[in-house]
């Protein structure tokens, strides 16, 4: 089973609620479209989506790299412990 803290659950509810509101009422972004000089709301949402995806990919890359380093050090430690145990016998 997956257990998420309440803060994460509510964060996802807010994110999905925001998506639903923007899907139902895209005119809410017309002011931002005019200020940022986009042609359509869809163009603004596409740029925002690419920015979010780029940030997520970068975050995941660094998270995976950190886990890879931890895993390598753990495997190295276990391998060296196995060698020491065999030599002791």
| Number of separate helices | 3
Q: Helix share of residues?
A: over 70%
Largest sheet: none
How many separate domains? 1
List the helices and strands and how they pair.
Blueprint: H1 6-24, H2 30-36, H3 41-88
Summarize the structure in words.
The structure is a single chain. The protein has 89 residues and is mainly alpha-helical. The protein has one domain. The protein contains 3 helices and no strands. The chain is elongated and about 75 Å long.
Concise overview:
The chain is mostly helical and 89 residues long. It has one domain (6-88). The protein is built from three helices and no strands.
Provide tags for this entry:
mainly alpha; 89 residues; 0% strand; 83% helix; elongated
